[in-house]
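R.M. (postdoc): so does anyone remember the format we settled on? I'll just put the structure tokens first.
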């Protein structure tokens, strides 16, 4: 990933390398460059975790301004750690979220898709053939329910995207060295993937650690996605830049991921 820092006190964000020349705008934002006070300092975009409402609103304005996008058109979902995906054609007039879901897809130019994270995996999708984007939120529950696959299937069923054409990006989230899990997670991984090889690491004391990055990469690869970029940035190890629900014991904010299609240019 490429780290972008434009000026002091402005939002700091990352972009995926293979989309640098693509006709879309995107950013996985850090916790830096906002106005929230501790423990949500400072670019918190989570609106229901105790932070000041006005501060959260200002942070939202900052992230859309950083990408030169119209935040009033932004589409998001009420994330529920599931695997439902919705199609975004524009924001709803009576509420801030489209539905209870963990995936969003669109083909609308300039329509920002946005989600919030604090250890779960941001998964971003772009189909350059159909000019379609998607975004998914995958914690362990979403991962073993196929949240990534759900978003890919929605792109296929709604817009005709073919997995081999899609570029997928797995963003900063809790890394395999820090994500200790219990037996219920190990059982769910075994049930969904048919094996825990390469997905669960056992330590000498019998503790199990889940590799969310590899699990979601494997899901996408099995579905036929050939181009996958993995950020490899652990939120729990980088709390100076990202929020981590696990490392900060729940007393933290949420960082944002945003993407929007841009018009295609004629050659």
């Amino acid at each position: 990933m490429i780290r972008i820092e434009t000026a002091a006190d402005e939002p700091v964000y990352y972009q995926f390398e293979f989309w640098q020349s693509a006709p879309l705008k995107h950013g996985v934002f850090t916790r830096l460059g906002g106005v929230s006070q501790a423990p949500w300092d400072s670019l918190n975009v989570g609106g229901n975790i105790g932070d000041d409402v006005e501060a959260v609103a200002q942070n939202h304005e900052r992230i859309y301004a950083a990408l030169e996008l119209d935040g009033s058109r932004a589409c998001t979902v009420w994330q529920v750690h599931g695997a439902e995906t919705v199609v975004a054609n524009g924001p709803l007039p009576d509420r801030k979220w489209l539905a209870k879901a963990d995936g969003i897809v669109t083909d609308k130019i300039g329509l920002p898709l946005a989600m919030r994270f604090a250890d779960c995996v941001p998964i971003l999708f772009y189909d350059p053939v159909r000019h379609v984007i998607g975004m998914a939120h995958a914690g362990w529950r979403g991962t073993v329910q196929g949240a990534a696959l759900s978003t890919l299937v929605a792109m296929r069923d709604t817009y005709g995207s073919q997995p081999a054409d899609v570029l997928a990006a797995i963003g900063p989230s809790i890394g395999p060295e820090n994500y200790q899990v219990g037996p219920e997670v190990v059982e769910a991984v075994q049930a969904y993937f048919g094996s825990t090889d390469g997905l669960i690491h056992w330590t000498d004391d019998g503790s199990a650690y889940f590799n969310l990055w590899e699990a979601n990469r494997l899901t996408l690869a099995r579905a036929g996605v050939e181009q996958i970029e993995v950020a490899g940035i652990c939120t729990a190890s980088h709390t100076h830049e990202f929020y981590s629900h696990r490392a900060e014991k729940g007393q933290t904010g949420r960082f944002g991921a945003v993407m929007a299609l841009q018009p295609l240019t004629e050659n």
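R.M.: ...and that's the designed sequence above, right after the tokens. Also worth knowing: Residues 11-174+228-261 form a domain with the CNF1/YfiH-like putative cysteine hydrolases fold (CATH 3.60.140.10). The chain has one domain: 11-174+228-261.
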